[in-house]
Amino acid sequence: MKLGFLTSYSEERVKFAKDAGFNCLELNAGPGSSLDASTSDDELSRVKDTLDAHGIAVSSLACYFNHLEEGHEEERAAYFGKLIEMAPRLGCNVIATMSGATAQSRESGKLDDSIAAFQKTFEPHAQKAEDNGVKIAFENWPGGHPWPLFINIAISPGAWDMMFDAVPSPALGLEYDPSHLARLNIDYIAPIKRFAARIHHVHAKDTTIKTDVLNNVGYTGQGWWHYSIPSRGVVDWNAFFAELQAIGYSGGVVIEHEDPDFDGENFDAGLHLGQKFLSQFVK
Length: 283
Description:
Blueprint: E1 2-7, H1 11-19, E2 24-28, H2 41-53, E3 57-63, H3 73-86, E4 94-97, H4 103-108, H5 115-132, E5 135-139, H6 157-166, E6 172-176, H7 178-183, H8 190-194, E7 199-204, E8 206-209, H9 211-217, E9 225-228, H10 237-246, E10 252-255, H11 267-278
C-alpha cells in the first residue's frame, strides 16, 4: 500500500508530500483543474518528471462529476474518455469518479432508476479502461444532508450489486471510503471481503458523530456529524486495515481531508496528523 492525500497538482504540494512522509498523491483532474484532460503531452511529461524526482506516485486521478446529468452526457463521456487515455502517461492506473444519478432518481429517491443510464454510459468507459489498463473507482459519497441523490448512486453495497450486475467489467470498482458508510450506519468492514476484487482505491477519512446532538435532532437533523482526519472519529482503523490486508489490497490509501477542525492555515496540520496515525498501518 501507498499513503497519500487528495490534492490539486502543484510542485509545492508534491514537495510537501515528500517532506511530510507521503509517497503518493490522488490528483484532481476534473474540468478546470490544474491538471485536466486538456493538459498537453509536454506538460504531462514535466509533471511526471517532478513527481518522479520527489518519489511520489499518482495513485489515482479524481474526476467527480455527474456522468448522468441530462444534457451533459456526451461532453462528460468525451472528457472522461480522454482521462482514461491520459492516466497511464502519469504512471497511474486508477481514475476515481462518481457514478452519477439521473433526475428520475433524484425525484423518486430510488437508486435503480439510474441503472439503465449508468449501463449505457459505463459499458463503453469500462471497455476503454480495460483496453488502457485502467481501473475506474466509484467514490461512495452519499451526497448532502442527510443524503440527497445529487450526483451519485454508488452509496451502499446494495447499489454496488446493481451497478456491477449491470456492467460486470472488472475495470469497474470502488474508491472505498469507510466514513460514508459509518455516517449512514452501514457496516464498513463486512463489505471489504465481499467486494475485495472491486476495491481499486481507498479514501482514508473518518466521521465524527455527536451523539448528544443526534439524540436531540434525529437523523434528518443537522450538526450531528462531520468528516474528520483518521483517528478522530468512529472508524475502527485497526479492523479496517486488518481486513484490507486480509484481501491483499496493495493500492493507494489517500486522506481526503474534510475535517473542519483543521481548515484554513491549519489544513496541513491535519495532513501531518493523518500521516502520523496511518503510517502505522501503511508500510
